[in-house]
Amino acid sequence: MLTKGVPDFSEGAVSFDEDGHLERGKTPTVMNPNDAFALEAALQTRVRHGGHVSGMSMGPPGYAEVLEGAMESVYTDDSYLLSDRELAASDTWATAITVSSGIEKYREEVADVDLVFAGFKTADGETGQTGPQTCWALEWPIVTHVIALDIDPDERRLRAKRLVEGDVDEIETVEAPLPCMVVTDPEFEPTYRKAAHRLTHKRLRAETQERAAEHDEHLTTWDHADLNLDPDYIGLDGSPTIVSSVDPIPKAPSEREATMIDPDDGAAMEPVLEELQPFAGGD
Amino acid sequence: MSEYEHYEAVVVGCGPGGAAAAARLAEHGVETLVLERGVEAGSKNVSGGLIYAEDSAPYTIDGLFDGFREEAAERPVTDYRIHNIAGDKVKTYDLTDLHEHDTDWCDAVLRRKMDSWLEARVHEKTSETGGGVLTNVRVNGLLREDGEIVGVTCDELDPIEADLIVAADGVNSELAREAGLMDWEEPDEWFQGVKAVVDMDPEAVNHRFGIDDNEGVAHLFSGDLFEDVRGGGFLYTNEESLSIGTVFHLDSLVAEQAEPHELLDALLTHPVMAHWIGDGYDEREYAAKLVPDSKKVAHREPYRDRLVLVGDAAGQMQAQGPIIKGMNHAVTAGALAADAFAITRGNADPEAAGRRYAKLLEDSGTMAKLRPKQYELARTVGERETVTNVVDRVLESPLGSVALGNPLADRVLERAYNSPFLVSMLPDTRTGYTTVPTVIGEARGKSIRWKNDAEPPTLEERIGDLTYDTDVGNPHIELRDASVKASGAAVYACPVSAEAFGGGCYRTEQVKTNGDEETLVSLDTQPCVECGTCAIVADTAWEHPRGGKGVEYRQG
Ligand SMILES: Cc1cc2nc3c(=O)[nH]c(=O)nc-3n(C[C@H](O)[C@H](O)[C@H](O)COP(=O)(O)OP(=O)(O)OC[C@H]3O[C@@H](n4cnc5c(N)ncnc54)[C@H](O)[C@@H]3O)c2cc1C
Ligand code: SF4
Predict the structure, then answer these.
(1) What's the predicted TM-score (pTM) here?
(2) Residues of chain B positioned with their CB less than 8 A from the CB of A202
């Protein structure tokens, strides 16, 4: 379960300095809102099939709180934080390298991994690239925009419904072998139609309360040395993308004038219908 | 093997009946799943409420749940009285003897606190045998195989099979109805209870009632303050609040076209209340629910196939004169149903448990309490209107009043009120509820001149203070017949609707049809408190809301 912290963009929580720059230090960190759906997907999988769910995040030590939040909300068993100064200011590429190294180390030292869940885009970066890049580094398949998920543990395959946005939204069903990375869509909704699943869910919640209260005991921190990463390839130095500055986006000026027409007003609607006539097709 | 999930027992509802059944099933080692539609047990439930532990009962709530009285209940009742009211005159009788008859102990309770406490205990117990409690799940029907009941269907879950299905889903049990065991037709088979929980500092409670922390009072009220509506009022002390409410025969409410909230207000604002309520009336919650009358509806064979009914679902709610005993009987019945299943476990006959349960209800004397013989005998007399009218006229005549009013009659009457035998045969007529108390109050009562400044909230404010999670676009009640004749009674009998109030569930509207103007009834279920009244008095398709939806009581 991959998650990251983002500045709390909710009303009143964000802090800007006098130049209008975000004051990270003063703005509280919360879990990337889109990760909540990935968390739900991980939980649903665990409730239905059992298993062990770990939370992993790359970021400053403060992200431990985000992992703790994940433990509280979706009952992860333990947390892994990839954190040190050398990792700061990574772009998506450097992040992907680091996170995939974290996953590799986890597989070697903790347990094998069948599924990695990640959220769709972060609220602060909005690139949507980290997931695919991480997969590329792991040489795993990836299924994105997942809104529903079914796993066949015996066949070691998953079947997912994906929301494909376009002129018309379509729902596509895909299959993939495990291990695989699943990136959830905000439309993802967990379903628990079996009493046994709901009872498991309830049991996990009860068990987690104690664990989350002592999150530190379930938290492992790995720095770049633990991950065997060359400082030249990570952090700011390893980031090929540089964001030169972030500009506020001016509202696009409208060149056309709009006229409001009451659709119940027959006379006023007439010219509109005339305009539309050529597009109507048929006769 | 079928594709459905299977549990040995499924218990529907986690009120006292369901909790007792589930706890006892778990003690027998039965894998038990409990399904409760509220967000938490108690969030849908209302009682007066005094829970009794009867000496003669095979099971009591504290026997099944250690620590119940200390952790889930409010104050014990140490003082029990009835006030006969005529205008501002009040004559009070001590009812302690009646109250203590067959009573080991009796505590006031608030249902949210009580039932949520029970839920946690039940979950612990049932988890040990492979089950547990799930909230936010509404059972919406019976699963059948070749016509035989084999499980339940739910709004939120796939169908579930079980060897035993306990319908402990309370009054207006959809399961009992679907099984064809109970119907929702006759208003005279029900009472409607309405209650306000009034906030009060514990010191104020002690001071105003002259009691200590571990003492409590129960006051009952009858007489002409409710006009001619048959029923009465109650006041019970909780740790930090009062429960004040009314219980009326539903047929009488309909016949008198009475507004339930106004009857409650008549009690709240009566001078007799002034001293107890004090100034600064602060209502925490307004609530209402139907109550079945066991004398008429307690089912003698409350089972079908693998389904058994317990508690209100089976009509096991005993109105012993002014004393209301529903929770204790639900507990007994739930535990007996569990025992019956344990005894007959493995029997190939699907009705073995049900039959045994019915027998246990008889053998334990529970059925005799629910359907007292003396009532069956008195009923034929009591319900003959002519007799009532004659008796009433005599009582109201100067001669009758004098007879009732002399000091000797006074003692006799107090004794009569305290006789469980006499009280259980009281006919359901005005005589017992209104005429006698009024005459007593008139002849023997002292005028009370205290000024009662209580200003109960309006219906609109009461609705506004309640918590709802509305299932938008999916109303749980539908009007089948909007004519005033079929459904007009709901406009006043619904506790959150009123003739002159447009913000309630039911209202009347003038509708123009082809030049004719017609009065029709309309329904908006948003403010509904799921009391069940309009299931009986109006022509509706009536269901409970989906799991977790609808009203959420904080007090109960
Ligand atoms: C105003 C008033 C005063 C009363 N005073 C007293 C009193 O002083 N003493 C006394 O003993 N009794 C009193 N009663 C009666 C008492 O409240 C009931 O008899 C008692 O609650 C019955 O218990 P039960 O377990 O059968 O049902 P309930 O307590 O009603 O419990 C039923 C449970 O089933 C759940 N449920 C219902 N349908 C479904 C479904 N489809 N799916 C899942 N869950 C469902 C409900 O949410 C609820 O939790 C009073 C009642 C009222 C209204
Ligand atoms: S709408 Fe019906 S069930 Fe709801 S509160 Fe009114 S009478 Fe009761």
Answers:
(1) 0.88
(2) 123, 132, 134
